[in-house]
Structures are given as C-alpha cells and as structure tokens.
Amino acid sequence: MSDAKVDPRFQPVSGFDLPRFAGVPSFMRLPHIVEGDALYNDVQIGLVGVPWDGGTTNRPGARHGPRQLRDLSTMIRAQHQFTGVRPFELVNCADLGDVPPNPADLMATLDRVAEFYSDLKTSGIVPLTAGGDHLISLPILRGLSGGDAVSMIHFDSHTDLFNEYFGGTRYTHGTPFRRAIEEGILDPKRTIQIGIRGTMYDDEDRRFAADAGVTLILIEELMERGVTDVMAQARDLVGDTATYVSYDIDFIDPAFAPGTGTPEIGGPDTFTAQAVVRELAGLNLIGADLVEVSPPFDPSGNTAWVGVSIMFELLCVLAPAVAERAR
Question: How many domains does the chain have?
Fold first, then answer.
C-alpha cells in the first residue's frame, strides 16, 4: 500500500517465528515501548490501555478489558484481508502500556489520563486506545484537543449524553460527551452517533443532542439506509476536520459480543461492525478508542476477539491518515 520505510524494530512478532500462544502478550505483538525508551520519540501510533471502570453505573469489569484484549490481539496478523492495508509497514506502531489509574479516586484518574494523552499529543503520537469504560473518552479528548473542539464519529447503542446520575453525579460512562461538549473540546455540530437503541429512562439525552446539534442515527435508520449511505453522511459531516473515533463494543449485538456492561439487543452483526470502520478511510483522524469490553461477562474471550478485530480495523484507517500527514 505504500513505499514508506518504517523502522524494522517496530514490526510485530510473526506467528511464523514465535507461536501466538507463546511469549509475553502485547497489543498485536508489537514492541512494548514507554516514555524514556530510546525508540519512544519514533513512535507514530501508540496502542494504549486504560484499565479503569470507575464510571460504571451497573455491571463492572471493563477495567480488565485491556489485559484480555492484549491477550486476544496476538491472533492479529499483518495485513487487512480486504483493503490490503499493512499498517505496520506504513507507520511505526508500538504498545505504550497502560495509563495507571487510581481506582480509589475518579477525578484523579481523569487527570492522569488527560495528562498521559496530552503528552502523546506533544510527542506527535496518535493513540489507539483499549478501555476501560466509556468515561475514559472524556480525558482522552481533553488531552488530544489542546483546548480546541474536535469532531467525532461515535459507534454505540447509547448516546452517553446524560447530564447526571443518582441526583448529582456528573462523571459516569453515561455522561462523557455531555461534559466534552460543555467544556468546548467536542464540536456537537460535527458529532455523529450511530447505532443508538435500547430502552430509555427518558429522552433527556436526545433532547440535549437536538438542542446542541448532535446528529443521532438510531439503529432503525442505520438498518434501513445501510452502511454506505449513513457513513457517507458521517464523512460529509466531519469533512477534513480533526476527527476522533469512539467505538463502544455494545454497538454490536450481544449475540456476537456479550462481554459488556450494558448490552442492547437489535444491533449490527460483526461484519457490519467492521464495514462501518472501513468507511472512515481518508478522514483526518487524530485517534480512536474501543471501550466497554468486560471480560467477566464473557470468559471465553470471544468479545475481546471481536474487540481487537475492530481495533485492527481502526488501525487500518488510522495508519494511512498518519502516514499521509507525515508526508
């Protein structure tokens, strides 16, 4: 896909050289590099874990997501079977480890995550993140935005636009994008949320979306119009602006990805889950996350395998974007 020359030290370990069940697991068998290492300043895309679920309001467990996602990611190979993209030959990719959370202090964890991603931005590293519950997207946006409002394409069964839970709690996995819009780091008129469904407490989040200018695509509309048409709208909406992608595993029907805290039936199958990401090719992407994989609800690892497969799809649209900007 490219004649770009990447540092051979950033190549993942091949299953032909070391069996996939052997060795210490890292994301997609990439080298594990942390700040201070000699190769750190050469990293272009950093895969990061945020093992934290302090924003979860019902079924916890997403704090264990990054570890299981790393383990299952050893099955990922070097080339996208349909597009032909070989991301590890386009840019230098590495596993940057986990952001260390403070499991006893929600606000301290938000600060830690924001600082970590601010440092990545300063270093010119584009992040692909494994969560963690969806509240982690708020501090990631704080770190990456630099104070400027970014655009977002969001795949989820929930809007995560609620104002508060339990009579005043404003920071949960159901509120991150409400806070981001209020803080001026997310442009609501260039935000589209796709796959929304499920029973509702009320319509407060949808009324906020309408008032702020957020575009909602309910699951019924996605199914009726189809992936190509809906994603063309998403592409037109964000244009060439700096765009973040947030992907909640519960966008996918729980028949295919049951290991999550708030599953909603009636969602896409795994092929559709891949297809929507492929339509992001060519956008000005500044980062992406895959959140809400909760291993206790799927010890088989199938949900994590779905999750890392989506992460590879995301990497295959991120890598060409980063390579193009580097040129």
Answer: 1
The parent domain of residue 167 ranges over 8-326
| CATH code, domain carrying 279 | 3.40.800.10
Would 1 be classed as within a structural domain?
no
* Edge-to-edge strands, sheet with 150-155: 93-98, 45-50, 126-131, 285-291, 243-248, 150-155, 186-196, 215-218
Does residue 235 belong to any structural domain of this protein? Answer: yes
Does 132 sit behind a cis peptide bond, omega within 30 degrees of 0 on the bond before it?
yes
CA distances from 307 to 43, 168, 303 (A): 23, 32, 6
Does the global pTM surpass 0.90?
yes
Q: Using an 8 Å Cβ cutoff, are 274 and 227 in contact? A: no
Instruction: Determine the Cα–Cα distance for residues 154 and 260; give it in Å rounded to an integer.
Output: 17
pLDDT digits (tens, 9 = 90+) for 133-167: 999 999 999 999 988 999 999 999 999 999 999 98
Angle at 170 between CA 189 and CA 106, to 5 degrees: 115
